[in-house]
Amino acid sequence: MAAAAALAERARPLASPNPGVGAIIVKHGAVLARGWTMPGGRPHAEAVALEAAGEAASGATLYVTLEPCAHRSQRGPACADLISAAGLARVVVGMRDPDPRTAGDGIARIEAAGAQVATLDWTPACLGLSGHATQLAKGRPHVTLKLAMSLDGCIATCTGESQWITNSASRAHGHRERARADAILVGGGTLRADNPRLDVRLPGLEDRSPRRVALTSGKVPEGWQAIRSPEEIAALDGVRYLMVEGGAQTASAFLAAGLVDRLLIYRAPVLLGGGTPAIGHIGHDTLEKAFADGLNLLDRRQLGSDTLEVYQRA
């Protein structure tokens, strides 16, 4: 399932409007076929893997990160029907699909065809589908807040100088994260002061630059979209994964509104002292309120001399 979850990452975000899913077919301890959701959302990961395996899929085990779809579409057959027809002996599902068009019906249909189904609700597989789940459960994109700061939590010096606090490895990782987002958002102050490009500057991934959004009541340049409040992200059509990058005020607004699902914190080994804080007041006037946010550390790694910490809201 870990390997299937890694395959699913290849599909994001090109699989939109469908979620990125990974699938692996195994028989007698050997991998027969792999698949992930194709650009534009079709064919699905299961269909790709089953086509590659052919008749050898009979009696095999399918590992798939999301419950196979049960609804028919003009764009392709239901994966639950394809799996049932293939004669698989066992299907291991990483996460049940919250989409009401499937929501357990896919598993039921596969079991009715005689295959054994095991559902893991396994965290790594679920994290890879966080945009799909958040959109269905909350009606908004999954939000990642990126903060690049000094050891003492500053994003700029006392004079406003901020380029560059973090090193080239951290910036490259940040561009990799941009490439996985559907849209990227900064505040109006950052837009006016820096005129940021917000593109992906990694070789081979330049075409993965996300849509550009600004949190502002003012005008935005051509090719940008403006929203006036963090809550308006729910109206960003086709956006499952939103990355928030620019400005302490914008970061604070999203945190105060409870709209941050994931935190990327890049820390450089430098003390600025008296610089611009990464975030302002977000409503935590007691420790009890602060700890109630329930942030879980998912990952910590070195990026050269910098440190990256990844937190997910519980």
TrEMBL record:
The lineage of its organism: Bacteria, Pseudomonadati, Pseudomonadota, Alphaproteobacteria, Sphingomonadales. The gene is ribD. NCBIfam families: eubact_ribD. This is Riboflavin biosynthesis protein RibD. Zn(2+) binds at residues 44, 69, 79. The keyword NADP applies. Substrate binds at residues 162, 178, 198, 201, 245. Its EC number is 1.1.1.193, 3.5.4.26. The active site is at residue 46. In the C-terminal section; belongs to the HTP reductase family. In the N-terminal section; belongs to the cytidine and deoxycytidylate deaminase family. GO terms for biological process: riboflavin biosynthetic process.
